[in-house]
Design a protein that fits this description.
The chain has 2 domains: 131 residues, E3 ubiquitin-protein ligase SopA (Pectate Lyase C-like), CATH 2.160.20.80; 116 residues, Serine Threonine Protein Phosphatase 5, Tetratricopeptide repeat. It contains 8 helices and no strands.
Length: 258
């Protein structure tokens, strides 16, 4: 049986939409297609023209959509979990409740804050401007609370790219980097956050961060030999992180995201 025949048996779409289904699978071009509720798991739709397609509630889990044109497509409650969307264009698409968890979004194009109502935990290649600063920062906090420090560092980095003058995100990334053992980078983040607080007239926070940066610098210069020095160093660094946590608390919580 031809491969297309296998697809048609597996995909529960209404007869009136069958022409659209055949067109997209054979030609990779189907503007304004009516494919709501279609099962397109693992479909190869690389470079497909799906502008203004109606794909709401469709299952595109682990589909290959690299380079696809999805501008204006309705992807409400569509599953794109684990899909590859490298270089895809999703500008002006509807992403309400869309499942983008574990998808590869490297180089994908979105409208500003387009992912505010989508689920994207575990996605790679997240563009900074596709979510609000608050959504990125809060996702980083959630990752940190789950001891996923590398993910937290990356998310706080995206939050900083989105809003470079947010001292809270610099503090939060510094904490994540400290936990990852990147202490010189943590010191740089704390010092920069201190300068932001100082410029904003928040002298107490600025001084606390400068003291924390100096404390870490002093601790890493100490010998970590015998007599419990290694344990004492670790305890001191953890204490520093805990002391700074209130400065990196969650911002406004968005409705979706993780």
């Amino acid at each position: 049986m031809p491969l297309l025949g296998l697809w048609l048996i597996a995909i529960p779409v209404h007869a009136k939409n069958m022409d659209d289904l055949i067109k997209v699978l054979q030609d990779g071009e189907c503007r304004n297609c009516r494919l709501a509720d279609a099962d397109l798991v693992h479909a190869d739709l690389r470079d497909a023209d799906l502008r203004d397609a109606r794909l709401q509630r469709a299952n595109l889990g682990e589909a290959r959509l690299d380079g696809a044109d999805l501008r204006g497509a309705n992807l409400s409650f569509t599953s794109l979990r684990g899909a590859s969307l490298r270089g895809a264009n999703l500008e002006d698409s509807v992403l309400h409740g869309t499942d983008l968890r574990y998808a590869d979004l490297s180089g994908a194009r979105f409208s500003p804050n387009a992912l505010e109502e989508a689920h994207w935990s575990g996605a790679t290649g997240l563009p900074a401007k596709a979510q609000s600063h608050a959504a990125l920062h809060n996702a980083g906090v959630a990752a940190a609370e789950g001891d996923r420090w590398k993910q937290a560092e990356d998310l706080f980095g995206l939050a900083i790219r989105n809003q470079p003058d947010s001292a809270e995100s610099w503090v939060a990334r510094g904490i994540a980097r400290e936990q990852l053992g990147k202490r010189q980078l943590a010191i740089q983040d704390f010092s920069y956050a201190s300068s932001l607080y100082k410029a904003d007239g928040q002298t107490a926070n600025a001084e606390q961060l400068q003291a924390a940066a100096q404390s870490i610098q002093d601790k890493v210069h100490k010998k970590q030999g015998g007599n419990g020095m290694g344990s004492a160093l670790l305890g001191g660094l953890l204490s520093t992180s805990k002391a700074l946590m209130p400065l990196a608390m969650k911002l406004f919580v968005p409705a979706f995201g993780m």
